[in-house]
Write a structure and sequence with these properties.
The protein is built from 10 helices and 20 strands. The chain is of the alpha+beta class. It has 3 domains: 67 residues, Uridine Diphospho-n-acetylenolpyruvylglucosamine Reductase, domain 2 (2-Layer Sandwich), CATH 3.30.43.10; 113 residues, Uridine Diphospho-n-acetylenolpyruvylglucosamine Reductase, domain 3; 104 residues, Uridine Diphospho-n-acetylenolpyruvylglucosamine Reductase, domain 1, CATH 3.90.78.10. It is globular, with a radius of gyration of 21 Å. The two termini are 29 Å apart. The relative contact order is 0.13.
């Protein structure tokens, strides 16, 4: 049964562990809950924030409105043939838990995305990615309810307009749809992707020569745990900044000045730069201000080191942006949603 609470602390619902309050708070455990919420005066008259795992946002102030927490659960096999299988997961399912479930069934495609915080519903919104794989590579479709009238709509990959950590749900359809499930097209025949990052090196260190998808997942988990703070222990939202894209000309100019520049060629002729490397070159690893800090092992990550405010994290991110621009003439962009 739908329950709307008032003046609720959001600290347990964001991985930064930032204290903030919302005027109203509702948890959606079924489609009927959402249908009931649509009819309430609070829903009709309030500003709204849709919340999953709270792993990609930063509260810089209280939220004067209604926070809607997606708790929808369930995993099912939609269809399959000899080679592929379509698996549908409810939006409120824990992402890493869902990845592990797929690995246990020997369904290949998500293992490189192990240990990414958050819920299934956020995965297409962000087009999450890691170690050479993005959601768009395995995405089949999603189901979403129109937040104005509750009507169901199914989106295919083209309609989601996936980009680098982008989709229509962050741009033209922002806050217009409540994602209820996501379907993935996975393979029954493992095609391992171990060329990106340190996966091969980690597999060698684990003395594994004939890797399985479980081995790749374990390698990714080990790499992430060695570099990234556990949000249960240290508040953070993972990568705070996007890797910037620059033109071939800008890349050549930077390469002349910084021979060790870390970059990757893109199909359009541009280059993607490693934002973490740029930040590190500015001497900001471990830099701390007002309880917020740049993580000492991965400069892409900002952390709540000492019970800081969201405003302190935001101001630190601005300081990082300015330092990188001053040194490299490159404008970084925040990946985390700022509230």
């Amino acid at each position: 049964m739908l329950d709307i609470r008032n003046n609720v602390s959001l600290k347990p619902f964001n991985t930064f562990g930032i204290e903030a309050f919302c005027t109203h708070f509702a948890e959606i455990n079924s489609i009927d809950d959402f249908s009931a919420l649509l009819k309430t005066e609070i829903y009709k008259t309030s500003a709204k924030l849709f919340l999953g795992g709270g792993s990609n946002l930063l509260f810089t102030k209280d939220f004067n409105g209604l926070v809607i927490k997606n708790n929808l659960k369930g995993i099912e096999i939609v269809s399959e043939n000899e080679d592929e299988i379509i698996v549908k997961a409810a939006a409120g399912e824990n992402w890493h838990g869902f990845v592990l479930w797929c690995i246990e069934q020997n369904f290949c495609g998500l293992e490189n995305l192990s240990l990414i915080p958050g819920c299934v519903g956020a995965s297409p919104m962000q087009n999450i990615g890691a170690y050479g794989v993005e959601i768009k590579d395995v995405f089949n479709s999603l189901e979403a309810l129109n937040t104005a009238n509750g009507e169901l709509r199914v989106f295919n990959a083209a309609e989601c307009e996936f980009g680098y950590r982008e989709s229509v749900f962050k741009t033209k359809y922002k806050d217009q749809f409540f994602i209820i499930s996501v379907s993935f097209k996975l393979s029954k025949h493992p095609k391992l992707n171990t060329t990106y990052g340190a996966i091969n090196s980690e597999l060698e260190a684990m003395k594994i020569s004939n890797a399985t998808i479980k081995d790749v997942s374990n390698a990714v988990i080990a790499i992430r745990q060695s570099k990234l703070p556990n949000p249960v222990e240290t508040g953070n939202a993972g990568s705070f900044f996007k890797n910037p894209e620059v033109s071939k000309e800008k890349h050549e100019a930077l390469k002349r000045s910084f021979e060790a520049l870390v970059s990757y060629p893109l199909p359009n002729g541009n280059f993607k730069l490693a934002a973490g490397w740029l930040i590190e070159q500015c001497g900001l690893k471990g830099f701390e201000k007002d309880g917020a800090a740049v993580h000492s092992k991965q400069a892409l990550v900002l952390i709540n080191k000492n019970n800081c405010t969201g405003k302190a994290v935001f101001e630190l991110s601005g300081y990082v942006l300015q330092k990188v621009f001053d040194k490299f003439g490159v404008a970084l962009e925040r990946e985390v949603n700022i509230i």
